[in-house]
Amino acid sequence: MNERESADLNKWIKSLKSIISLSLERLESRWNSWEIDATKITIYEVTGAMVARQISLAKSFSNNPQAWNNDLAPLIMRAMVENIINLKWILKDPLVRSRKFVEWGIGNEKLQVEKRVREIEESGGNPDEDLATESNIAWIDFHRYTFLTEVNLGSWSGKSVRQMSIEAECKDFYDLVYDPFSNNSHSSWNHIGKFNVQISENPLHRFLRTPYVDSGHIDPFYAELSMKYLSMVFDTFESKYFPDINEKSILELFQETIRE
Amino acid sequence: MSNVAKKKILSDHKQKGKKLIPIMMQGNFLSEINWLDDFVPELFWIACVQKKLGYKTANEVLLELHELYLEISDSKYPHNIFSSYSSLKGHQKSKLLDRFKSSKSYDKLLMGIKDLQYFYPGHPLEFLYSNLELSKEDVDLEFIKSVLGDISFRRSKEAMYAQALVLYVAMATGKLIVTKESSLLGINEIKEYPDTEKSRQIASSIRASFNGILGNKDLTIRCDWANNFWVRSFELERPHINLQK
């Protein structure tokens, strides 16, 4: 990296840091002013956690420019995109759907605990001495006693992400963003066949695709994308619960910062 | 973003279960062929001869060889793809060799395919070499690679000349009859390819006609040597990577 590139990167990092800081303040401000209905508590817990999650992802990503490339960035982007689709879908019917989200989560945790217990027992260990098992059971019990918890083997919403995106009126987003990024997450051929192969130049090898590992480059495009997806979560959250607030979006603020 | 009704994508595809089948694959009237796997092994020898001798001389030599082949062979497959020559029986090979040896084209052809003879043993015309030996100093793997590089793309000049040769020989030996409206009558225009519009049109006709000659996946004339062509190519220089540079 030359001096100019280094200076540009520092500028990006500085701008991202300031927006992350701003996002934290914003979430704090919204949450602290939110009238929480204690009879519908999962709405606030799930929504809050999803916005916090999005900030976490954006923060970790912005702190690691080495991840701003075709190999790693789509993994994070896909998680951010799925978070947006989930939130949009949940907020169409917040109480019912946030409860579904929680119930599936604790049920799935129970299933994972059971698998871990079986594995410990089969290898001759004592699951009662396993701290991870103890901690996870305690987490489940905090919601509902584990022995009373149902396990749902299907998807948490009962629908595919695609169906959720249709109902949440963001099918384009699913088609053009979630789906392509999924190729990276699943290491499908239409990801690794582009980014982890190099065509042999030797005519004897009939264009054989040979293994390839990129030496690593930093593409700020992904950093900007993370800001966009952070912004979308805030937009979804605020348009539902703080519709009268008239502030610039996270993305607009980021774009102003980067242009300074 | 919204779910407003949009143009249905891939609307001409037919859905069968979870798959969308393209229109061209919906009947049994088409079979898929692969240029590198199916055609290159059959034309490689022609491209070698053309590169070594120049197109005019090469075409004369190959026409002469194939005319002899047609007189001697009892195969029903008439075209001068490489596999055709593997259909010759022992006594037929001897007869062809005896007659061809007396021609000036014989030495020229041997020169044209000597690198192929050395690096790809067991090829369909190996019998022409009879007891002649080649040493490593006589041949050049880089020549093989350059020819393969030339014809790896179907629309390259060299690949088009090789395909054109097969059709030219077919027409010259009466095995391909074309009507007076056929663009193949202007096949000589291919020498201008790809620089003129007419040559590009001829090239298109050549490719389409050539598919008919070699495009049948059930082609029983195809020999083992052709089927193993790329296996041998990989043996000549094993694929090798260096990820730590």
TrEMBL record, chain A:
InterPro entries found in the cross-reference section: DUF5677
One Pfam assignment: DUF5677
Highest taxon above the source species: Bacteria
Protein name: Uncharacterized protein
Species in which this protein is naturally found: Flagellimonas flava
